[in-house]
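Re: that backbone. Tokens:
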């Protein structure tokens, strides 16, 4: 089966994970299986996670090619710890996260992610929960403006929210292009702008619908609680909000957070680092990959190596 999605920073991810025969790796965002196949080809077993039901054909293809070494569990990556327990594996040697929406989701108009293709205003990565249409048709002005500003960095968030509330009184929103047109008019078209006027609003809605930032935080803590000593946490992000969360998590867990932790109950000096950094800072795509895959232009890779110290979630007296 031909994959509709090219995995970003694939060589760097595999180098960071260093998978080998006998290892077990969780691919927390299976998608079309690009990372999973590369890991399996190096001899490791893979437990793949994904909440998107449309990935099933790709999972079946991988299972045919790698029988007995691959399994897919339908869950968001916040369910990593439970999924690993369900897998029956004894030790987790690596976990990789590819955060954000995939190109194959954007390309499917019926998923409602794109402001360039007409489709139902959905944006759910799973087939459950509140849709983007539910949000724009029922949320009050304040919460709408808040997510547009916080998740989309839309400077005219209030104006957009006002336009949405005014229009939905006449007719509820059901289609992507309808919403994109209202947003564009609210922002005056922004002719000559580098990006489409609806870009930030659609991004904010997608993040809100799927609780992407909350999922990321919970997924990182689940990986911390589940990885064996020496196991590697490999995260690829595409947005500054995501990268900020990963950077802060690794900075804190390596014991390098300035001024101590924001989690007050336990003093910083009583905690031992639960991760070491494989390398400082973030790695980005090289010129060759950028030429072949423009989606890689904003990608950043960060890697932590699990120590023998207890997970900080456990130290704080709560489940990670």
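Recovered sequence:
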């Amino acid at each position: 089966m031909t994959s509709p999605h090219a995995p970003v920073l694939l060589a760097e991810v595999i180098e960071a994970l260093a998978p080998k025969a006998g290892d077990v790796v969780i691919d927390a965002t299976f998608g079309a299986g690009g990372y999973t196949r590369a890991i399996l080809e190096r001899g490791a077993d893979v437990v793949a996670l994904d909440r998107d039901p449309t990935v099933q054909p790709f999972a079946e293809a991988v299972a045919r090619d790698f029988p007995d070494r691959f399994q897919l569990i339908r869950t968001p990556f916040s369910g990593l710890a439970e999924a690993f327990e369900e897998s029956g594996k004894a030790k987790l040697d690596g976990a990789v996260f590819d955060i954000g929406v995939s190109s194959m989701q954007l390309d499917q108009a019926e998923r409602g992610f794109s402001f360039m293709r007409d489709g139902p205003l959905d944006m759910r990565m799973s087939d459950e929960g509140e849709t983007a249409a539910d949000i724009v048709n029922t949320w009050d002005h304040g919460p709408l403006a808040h997510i547009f500003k916080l998740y989309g960095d839309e400077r005219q968030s209030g104006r957009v929210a006002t336009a949405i509330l005014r229009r939905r009184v006449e007719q509820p929103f059901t289609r992507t292009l309808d919403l994109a047109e209202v947003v564009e008019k609210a922002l005056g078209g922004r002719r000559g702008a580098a990006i489409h006027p609806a870009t930030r609003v659609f991004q904010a809605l997608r993040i809100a619908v799927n609780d992407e930032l909350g999922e990321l935080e919970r997924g990182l803590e689940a990986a911390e609680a589940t990885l064996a000593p020496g196991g590697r946490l490999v995260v690829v992000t595409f947005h500054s909000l995501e990268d900020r969360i990963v950077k802060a998590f690794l900075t804190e867990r390596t014991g390098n957070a300035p001024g101590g932790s924001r989690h007050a109950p336990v003093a910083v000096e009583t905690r031992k680092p639960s991760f070491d950094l494989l390398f400082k800072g973030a790695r980005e795509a090289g010129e060759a990959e950028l030429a072949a895959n423009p989606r890689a232009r904003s990608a950043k890779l960060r890697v932590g190596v699990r120590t023998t110290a207890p997970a900080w979630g456990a130290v704080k007296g709560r489940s990670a």
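DSSP finds 14 helices and seven strands in the chain. The longest strand covers residues 227-237.
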